[in-house]
TrEMBL record:
GO molecular function: dynein intermediate chain binding; dynein light intermediate chain binding
Annotated GO CC locations: dynein complex
GO biological process annotation, one example: microtubule-based movement
Highest rank taxon of the organism: Eukaryota
Identification of the protein by name: Dynein heavy chain linker domain-containing protein
InterPro entries: DHC (IPR026983)
Length: 233
């Protein structure tokens, strides 16, 4: 029995030793690019979360204790590395988020021009449908990218960026209350008209004209907002 216990203890120590060595190799990495850096931070946090369980099974053999010390040193070193690089990586992430937001705005502009407002395609909208499908696919890609960036910000303990421009493209039209929107537009038009009457400058004129132009679209919006209207329509 004594020999069996000894063999089991030896096997456990060997396993623990291998585990520590593997972890040290992971901690030695020093990635230079954002995506690899994010993966590295995730690995470090995962290793830390499992540290108590690993330490619980650790024997007091000298070689294992030595490896533990090495692991502790590398943990401290990797903490310093992460702290020294997280500022730079945050700047890269901010730049990526800004670029994503600009791409969303470009797609917004694309939806306001080109084939989508060309009346010659009214009878045969196949080209328009193809264009819309392309925009939809790109928006889906950008939406997935925004989720990834939000995960990065959470990992870096940052306040997640609200992708309002992208969010506006993802909201299903059927969730918009047409009646409430119509009331809001009517109030906005009255306010814009009153403001222009009071101030009468170029800015109030543009506001009044833009609000009036949007108000003209409301009958169509109300028709589309009819619950009886399905996607096939």
């Amino acid at each position: 029995m004594k020999g069996l216990v000894k063999d089991l203890a030896h096997a456990r120590c060997k396993t623990q030793l291998g585990e520590y060595k593997q972890r040290i190799q992971s901690l030695l990495q020093r990635p230079q690019h954002l995506k690899e850096f994010v993966g590295h931070v995730e690995r470090v946090q995962s290793l830390k979360s499992k540290q108590k369980a690993l330490a619980k099974n650790t024997n007091v053999l000298d070689d294992l204790r030595s490896v533990q010390e090495s692991y502790k040193e590398e943990t401290e070193a990797v903490d310093a590395f992460v702290a020294s690089r997280v500022g730079e990586m945050t700047q890269q992430l901010d730049a990526n988020i800004q670029r994503l937001d600009e791409q969303v705005l470009q797609l917004h502009n694309q939806l306001q021009g080109g084939l989508l407002i060309d009346a010659s395609h009214f009878e045969d909208p196949s080209a328009v449908k193809s264009e819309l499908e392309s925009v939809k696919q790109r928006l889906t890609q950008l939406n997935e990218l925004s989720k990834q960036y939000t995960e990065y910000q959470t990992l870096f303990n940052l306040m997640p960026f609200k992708h309002l421009n992208l969010q506006a493209t993802q909201e299903h039209f059927a969730t918009v209350n047409g009646e409430e929107l119509s009331k809001d537009v009517a109030v906005a038009f009255e306010d814009a008209y009153a403001l222009h009457k009071k101030l009468s400058n170029d800015v109030t004129a543009v506001l009044k004209d833009r609000t009036a132009a949007f108000k003209l679209n409301m009958p169509t919006v109300l028709e589309l907002g009819n619950p009886a209207v399905k996607d096939r329509h």
